Amino acid sequence: MCKLTMLGTGNALVTKCFNSCFVVSSATTHLLVDAGGGNGILAQLEKAGIDVGSLDGLYLTHAHEDHLLGAVWIIRMMATLMKKGKRTEKFPIYGNSHVIKALYGICRYALAPANFEYVCERIPLVEMSEADSVMVGDFRLRPFDIHSTKLTQFGVEITLPGGKRLVCLGDEPYNEANRSVVEGADWLICEAFCLYSQREQFKPYEKHHSTALDAGRAAESLGVRNLIIYHTEDTQLADRKRLYGAEAASAYSGNVYVPDDLEVIEL
Ligand SMILES: [Zn+2]
Protein backbone atom coordinates (compact mmCIF):
# COMPACT_ATOMS: atom_id res chain seq x y z
CA MET A 1 0.00 0.00 0.00
CA CYS A 2 1.37 3.40 -0.98
CA LYS A 3 0.66 6.60 0.87
CA LEU A 4 1.10 10.32 0.45
CA THR A 5 2.17 12.48 3.38
CA MET A 6 1.41 16.16 2.88
CA LEU A 7 4.24 18.03 4.56
CA GLY A 8 2.83 21.42 3.63
CA THR A 9 -0.32 22.71 1.94
CA GLY A 10 0.09 26.50 1.70
CA ASN A 11 1.17 29.03 -0.91
CA ALA A 12 4.46 30.95 -0.80
CA LEU A 13 3.55 33.53 1.85
CA VAL A 14 1.65 31.42 4.39
CA THR A 15 2.51 31.69 8.08
CA LYS A 16 -0.07 29.31 9.60
CA CYS A 17 0.97 26.22 7.63
CA PHE A 18 4.01 25.13 5.59
CA ASN A 19 4.64 25.65 1.87
CA SER A 20 3.26 22.93 -0.38
CA CYS A 21 5.34 19.76 -0.61
CA PHE A 22 4.79 16.07 0.03
CA VAL A 23 6.31 12.61 0.33
CA VAL A 24 5.06 9.61 -1.68
CA SER A 25 5.89 6.36 0.07
CA SER A 26 5.73 2.63 -0.69
CA ALA A 27 6.93 -0.11 1.67
CA THR A 28 10.51 0.56 0.62
CA THR A 29 10.65 3.98 -1.06
CA HIS A 30 10.22 7.59 0.09
CA LEU A 31 10.11 10.22 -2.68
CA LEU A 32 10.01 13.90 -1.70
CA VAL A 33 8.28 16.24 -4.18
CA ASP A 34 9.29 19.88 -3.68
CA ALA A 35 10.88 21.02 -0.45
CA GLY A 36 9.14 24.16 0.80
CA GLY A 37 10.85 27.47 1.40
CA GLY A 38 13.49 26.72 4.01
CA ASN A 39 14.64 24.94 7.12
CA GLY A 40 11.01 24.20 8.11
CA ILE A 41 11.16 21.17 5.79
CA LEU A 42 13.30 19.44 8.42
CA ALA A 43 10.68 20.10 11.10
CA GLN A 44 7.85 18.86 8.87
CA LEU A 45 9.69 15.63 8.07
CA GLU A 46 10.42 15.11 11.77
CA LYS A 47 6.78 15.68 12.72
CA ALA A 48 5.74 13.24 10.00
CA GLY A 49 8.13 10.61 11.37
CA ILE A 50 10.16 10.44 8.15
CA ASP A 51 13.95 10.40 8.57
CA VAL A 52 15.75 12.64 6.08
CA GLY A 53 18.25 9.82 5.62
CA SER A 54 15.49 7.46 4.50
CA LEU A 55 14.49 9.62 1.51
CA ASP A 56 15.35 7.99 -1.82
CA GLY A 57 15.12 11.06 -4.02
CA LEU A 58 13.75 14.56 -4.48
CA TYR A 59 11.80 15.93 -7.44
CA LEU A 60 11.55 19.70 -7.82
CA THR A 61 8.76 21.18 -9.96
CA HIS A 62 10.28 24.63 -10.38
CA ALA A 63 12.67 27.20 -8.98
CA HIS A 64 10.35 29.51 -7.05
CA GLU A 65 11.54 30.03 -3.50
CA ASP A 66 8.62 28.29 -1.80
CA HIS A 67 9.46 25.02 -3.58
CA LEU A 68 13.24 25.19 -4.01
CA LEU A 69 14.95 26.63 -0.94
CA GLY A 70 14.09 23.73 1.38
CA ALA A 71 16.19 21.55 -0.95
CA VAL A 72 19.31 23.35 0.28
CA TRP A 73 18.49 22.12 3.80
CA ILE A 74 17.81 18.59 2.61
CA ILE A 75 21.24 18.63 0.93
CA ARG A 76 22.86 20.07 4.04
CA MET A 77 21.37 17.31 6.19
CA MET A 78 22.09 14.58 3.66
CA ALA A 79 25.73 15.68 3.34
CA THR A 80 26.05 15.57 7.13
CA LEU A 81 24.64 12.04 7.24
CA MET A 82 27.00 10.95 4.44
CA LYS A 83 29.96 12.47 6.27
CA LYS A 84 29.08 10.49 9.39
CA GLY A 85 28.67 7.30 7.36
CA LYS A 86 24.96 7.17 8.15
CA ARG A 87 23.95 7.40 4.49
CA THR A 88 25.75 5.23 1.96
CA GLU A 89 23.49 5.42 -1.11
CA LYS A 90 23.47 8.42 -3.43
CA PHE A 91 20.65 10.94 -3.08
CA PRO A 92 19.50 12.10 -6.53
CA ILE A 93 17.62 15.37 -7.08
CA TYR A 94 15.60 15.73 -10.29
CA GLY A 95 14.05 18.68 -12.08
CA ASN A 96 14.04 20.74 -15.25
CA SER A 97 17.29 22.43 -16.28
CA HIS A 98 16.28 25.80 -14.83
CA VAL A 99 15.53 24.56 -11.31
CA ILE A 100 18.61 22.32 -11.27
CA LYS A 101 20.86 25.22 -12.33
CA ALA A 102 19.26 27.45 -9.69
CA LEU A 103 19.80 24.83 -6.97
CA TYR A 104 23.41 24.28 -8.01
CA GLY A 105 24.10 28.02 -7.94
CA ILE A 106 22.58 28.52 -4.50
CA CYS A 107 24.42 25.52 -3.07
CA ARG A 108 27.68 26.72 -4.60
CA TYR A 109 27.50 29.97 -2.66
CA ALA A 110 25.45 29.06 0.43
CA LEU A 111 26.89 25.71 1.53
CA ALA A 112 30.18 25.27 3.32
CA PRO A 113 32.76 23.64 0.99
CA ALA A 114 32.80 20.55 3.20
CA ASN A 115 29.08 20.07 2.46
CA PHE A 116 29.14 21.33 -1.12
CA GLU A 117 31.65 18.66 -2.11
CA TYR A 118 28.87 16.09 -1.82
CA VAL A 119 26.78 17.87 -4.44
CA CYS A 120 27.12 16.22 -7.86
CA GLU A 121 29.30 13.38 -6.53
CA ARG A 122 26.94 11.69 -4.09
CA ILE A 123 24.00 14.06 -4.36
CA PRO A 124 23.63 14.20 -8.15
CA LEU A 125 21.56 17.08 -9.53
CA VAL A 126 19.84 15.58 -12.56
CA GLU A 127 18.40 17.76 -15.33
CA MET A 128 15.36 16.11 -16.90
CA SER A 129 13.54 16.87 -20.12
CA GLU A 130 9.99 15.90 -21.02
CA ALA A 131 11.15 12.84 -22.93
CA ASP A 132 12.88 11.38 -19.86
CA SER A 133 11.59 9.02 -17.26
CA VAL A 134 13.42 7.64 -14.26
CA MET A 135 12.86 5.06 -11.53
CA VAL A 136 13.23 6.22 -7.94
CA GLY A 137 12.93 3.04 -5.93
CA ASP A 138 9.43 1.69 -6.59
CA PHE A 139 8.22 4.73 -8.50
CA ARG A 140 8.54 5.72 -12.13
CA LEU A 141 8.75 9.49 -12.59
CA ARG A 142 7.88 11.24 -15.83
CA PRO A 143 8.06 15.04 -15.96
CA PHE A 144 5.89 17.16 -18.21
CA ASP A 145 5.95 20.86 -19.06
CA ILE A 146 2.93 22.65 -17.56
CA HIS A 147 3.48 25.57 -19.97
CA SER A 148 3.89 28.21 -17.31
CA THR A 149 4.20 31.75 -18.59
CA LYS A 150 6.23 32.75 -15.50
CA LEU A 151 9.17 30.33 -15.62
CA THR A 152 9.82 26.77 -16.69
CA GLN A 153 7.82 24.43 -14.53
CA PHE A 154 7.50 20.67 -14.91
CA GLY A 155 4.71 18.73 -13.26
CA VAL A 156 5.29 15.04 -12.69
CA GLU A 157 3.50 11.78 -13.33
CA ILE A 158 4.37 9.18 -10.67
CA THR A 159 3.49 5.60 -11.49
CA LEU A 160 3.08 3.50 -8.36
CA PRO A 161 3.82 -0.23 -8.08
CA GLY A 162 0.74 -1.92 -9.55
CA GLY A 163 0.28 0.82 -12.15
CA LYS A 164 -1.81 3.50 -10.45
CA ARG A 165 -0.87 7.01 -11.61
CA LEU A 166 -0.51 10.07 -9.42
CA VAL A 167 -0.15 13.32 -11.36
CA CYS A 168 1.05 16.55 -9.74
CA LEU A 169 0.45 19.76 -11.68
CA GLY A 170 2.90 21.84 -9.65
CA ASP A 171 1.54 25.20 -8.51
CA GLU A 172 -0.26 26.50 -11.58
CA PRO A 173 -3.65 25.69 -13.11
CA TYR A 174 -4.19 22.71 -15.42
CA ASN A 175 -3.28 23.44 -19.04
CA GLU A 176 -5.27 21.66 -21.74
CA ALA A 177 -1.99 20.85 -23.53
CA ASN A 178 -1.40 18.20 -20.84
CA ARG A 179 -4.65 16.29 -21.32
CA SER A 180 -2.93 13.13 -22.57
CA VAL A 181 -0.81 12.92 -19.40
CA VAL A 182 -3.46 13.84 -16.86
CA GLU A 183 -6.63 12.25 -18.26
CA GLY A 184 -7.84 9.25 -16.29
CA ALA A 185 -5.23 9.62 -13.54
CA ASP A 186 -5.99 7.81 -10.30
CA TRP A 187 -4.85 10.81 -8.29
CA LEU A 188 -4.55 14.46 -9.33
CA ILE A 189 -2.75 17.02 -7.16
CA CYS A 190 -3.93 20.47 -8.19
CA GLU A 191 -3.40 23.93 -6.72
CA ALA A 192 -6.26 26.17 -5.63
CA PHE A 193 -5.23 29.52 -4.24
CA CYS A 194 -8.66 30.21 -2.74
CA LEU A 195 -12.38 29.66 -3.15
CA TYR A 196 -14.03 30.89 -6.35
CA SER A 197 -16.54 32.65 -4.11
CA GLN A 198 -13.64 34.64 -2.61
CA ARG A 199 -11.83 35.42 -5.88
CA GLU A 200 -12.41 39.17 -5.52
CA GLN A 201 -10.70 39.13 -2.14
CA PHE A 202 -7.69 36.95 -3.02
CA LYS A 203 -7.34 37.64 -6.78
CA PRO A 204 -6.00 34.18 -7.76
CA TYR A 205 -6.10 34.76 -11.52
CA GLU A 206 -3.73 37.73 -11.32
CA LYS A 207 -1.24 35.38 -9.63
CA HIS A 208 -1.54 32.59 -12.24
CA HIS A 209 -3.46 30.50 -9.73
CA SER A 210 -6.95 29.08 -9.67
CA THR A 211 -9.75 28.21 -7.24
CA ALA A 212 -11.29 25.12 -5.69
CA LEU A 213 -14.11 25.34 -8.23
CA ASP A 214 -11.61 25.46 -11.13
CA ALA A 215 -9.78 22.43 -9.72
CA GLY A 216 -13.07 20.54 -9.47
CA ARG A 217 -14.04 21.45 -13.04
CA ALA A 218 -10.65 20.34 -14.39
CA ALA A 219 -10.79 17.06 -12.45
CA GLU A 220 -14.28 16.35 -13.77
CA SER A 221 -13.37 17.07 -17.39
CA LEU A 222 -10.26 14.87 -17.07
CA GLY A 223 -12.09 11.93 -15.53
CA VAL A 224 -9.62 11.57 -12.66
CA ARG A 225 -10.70 9.38 -9.74
CA ASN A 226 -9.38 11.42 -6.84
CA LEU A 227 -8.55 15.11 -6.52
CA ILE A 228 -6.13 16.50 -3.93
CA ILE A 229 -6.16 20.29 -3.50
CA TYR A 230 -3.15 22.18 -2.10
CA HIS A 231 -1.12 25.41 -2.32
CA THR A 232 -3.87 27.57 -0.77
CA GLU A 233 -4.17 30.77 1.25
CA ASP A 234 -4.13 30.25 5.02
CA THR A 235 -6.72 32.62 6.49
CA GLN A 236 -9.35 29.96 7.16
CA LEU A 237 -7.48 26.72 7.75
CA ALA A 238 -9.97 25.46 10.35
CA ASP A 239 -12.74 25.53 7.72
CA ARG A 240 -10.64 24.91 4.60
CA LYS A 241 -11.36 21.21 4.29
CA ARG A 242 -15.13 21.77 4.42
CA LEU A 243 -15.32 24.94 2.30
CA TYR A 244 -12.84 23.98 -0.44
CA GLY A 245 -14.14 20.40 -0.49
CA ALA A 246 -17.73 21.53 -0.99
CA GLU A 247 -16.86 24.00 -3.74
CA ALA A 248 -14.76 21.48 -5.68
CA ALA A 249 -17.44 18.81 -5.21
CA SER A 250 -20.06 21.12 -6.75
CA ALA A 251 -18.32 20.55 -10.10
CA TYR A 252 -16.67 17.15 -9.60
CA SER A 253 -18.14 13.70 -9.00
CA GLY A 254 -14.95 11.97 -7.75
CA ASN A 255 -13.35 12.04 -4.30
CA VAL A 256 -12.03 15.40 -3.10
CA TYR A 257 -9.24 15.67 -0.53
CA VAL A 258 -8.24 18.99 1.03
CA PRO A 259 -5.51 17.81 3.40
CA ASP A 260 -4.07 19.69 6.33
CA ASP A 261 -0.31 19.74 6.88
CA LEU A 262 0.98 16.30 7.96
CA GLU A 263 -2.19 14.53 6.87
CA VAL A 264 -1.60 11.09 5.34
CA ILE A 265 -3.64 9.84 2.36
CA GLU A 266 -3.67 6.16 1.41
CA LEU A 267 -3.11 5.84 -2.35
ZN1 LIG B 1 4.36 27.89 -5.09
Please describe the biggest sheet, giving its number of strands, its sense, and whether it closes into a barrel. 7 strands, mixed
Highest CATH level, the class: Alpha Beta
Provide the number of structural domains: 1
- CATH homologous superfamily identity: Ribonuclease Z/Hydroxyacylglutathione hydrolase-like
Task: Describe the global form.
Answer: globular
Bound small-molecule species: zinc ion
Can you name the CATH architecture? Answer: 4-Layer Sandwich
Q: Could you tell me the number of beta strands? A: 14
Outline the low-pLDDT stretches. none
Strand content: 15-25%
Short summary:
This protein has 267 residues and is α/β, with parallel strands linked by helices. It is built from 8 helices and 14 strands. It has one domain: Metallo-beta-lactamase, Chain A (4-Layer Sandwich).
Describe this structure in words.
This protein is of the alpha/beta class. The protein has a single domain (3-266), classed as Ribonuclease Z/Hydroxyacylglutathione hydrolase-like (Metallo-beta-lactamase, Chain A, 4-Layer Sandwich), CATH 3.60.15.10. Helix content is 29%, strand content 22%. It has eight helices and 14 strands. The protein has helices spanning 40-48, 65-83, 97-110, 113-116, 179-182, 199-202, 212-222, 237-249, and strands spanning 3-8, 21-25, 30-33, 57-59, 93-95, 125-127, 134-136, 139-145, 154-159, 165-168, 187-191, 226-230, 255-257, 264-266. The strands form two sheets. The protein has a seven-stranded mixed sheet, covered by helices on one side. Strands 7-8-9-10-11-12-13 form a seven-stranded mixed sheet, with helices on one face. Helix 2 crosses helix 3 and helix 7 (212-222) packs parallel to helix 8. The longest helix is centred in the first third of the chain and has 19 residues, at 65-83. It is globular. The mean pLDDT is 97. The structure holds zinc ion.
